[in-house]
Amino acid sequence: MPIKIPDALPATDVLEGENIFVMTELRAMHQDIRPLKVLLLNLMPTKIVTETQIMRKLSNTPLQIEVSLLQTASHESKNVSAQHLETFYTTFDEIKDQHFDGMIITGAPVELLDFEDVDYWDELAEIMAWSATNVHSTLHICWGAQAGIYYHYGIPKYELPEKLFGVFEHEVVKPSSPLVRGFNDFFRAPHSRYTEVHASDIEAHPDLELIAVSDEAGVYIAKSTDSRHFFVFGHPEYDAGTLMVEYERDIAKGLDMPLPRHYFPNDDPAQAPRATWRAHAQLLYTNWLNYYVYQTTPYDLAKVGTEEVGNRG
């Protein structure tokens, strides 16, 4: 099934070029089906890249999904044109009376700031509070996961001695969870961050559970026991070359940046990196959409947030 996005969005041409089924708004109007409404709160500075990466994952499922793009009004984005934001993005005031089946909150390059020192923290906190009554299930990514688990459950983040940067092996520690159905026992995923949360803090909280961890990278996936909140502390949506772009950017800035670990073949940056996480990344998004959104969301959108998701494990 297709993903329904605005016809002129830059991601449309990219996805169609990859033979991904993208449905025009006109065609979608003539289908007698209620698509899942998913709100993407994009906090990344490279908004077009991020929206394309995430829509690629959302599109490869049997479900029809209608994506709305949300930006923070309290922060001025400098790496995307004002026209792009005005054309394709809404603000919280414009959608706060609506209901959504799912929401995704992306990462942001603000990890070394205390949460309350981020210039849009108050607005983000308002959105996360609103999600309790207007969103059925929320997926938080990287810094968005750290922010979400802190806001909802008081789990702190801790600064790392150096940037966690590369592609790391992880172990599924709760294989019975539908979120990781189809996963291998061990799988790889990218990370790019300066802070972390501790598994012991999550294990000590009665409303949280660990799903996947890494000996090198720490916690990768956690969720709430009521299946309303999912926290992914890496970047499963990244393309094969994303970490390379980040590495070259930081080197160009004169930063003493080590090579991303387990990323370049033979640790040689002259060799093209290969995506070794794509299949599990797709499974993660597909399983979240199927088991925790589509299978449990009320058909009447007005009832979203009034019914329990139920613990699907």
Automatic annotation (TrEMBL):
GO terms for molecular function: homoserine O-acetyltransferase activity; homoserine O-succinyltransferase activity. It is found in: Cytoplasm. It catalyses: L-homoserine + acetyl-CoA = O-acetyl-L-homoserine + CoA. The active site is at C142, H235, E237. Signal peptide: none annotated. The record marks E111 as: Important for acyl-CoA specificity. Its EC number is 2.3.1.31. One of its GO terms (cellular component) is cytoplasm. The record marks S192 as: Important for substrate specificity. InterPro entries: Class_I_gatase-like, HST_MetA, MetA_family. HAMAP family: MetA_acyltransf (MF_00295). Transfers an acetyl group from acetyl-CoA to L-homoserine, forming acetyl-L-homoserine. Belongs to the MetA family. PANTHER family: HOMOSERINE O-SUCCINYLTRANSFERASE. This is Homoserine O-acetyltransferase. It comes from Gordonibacter urolithinfaciens.
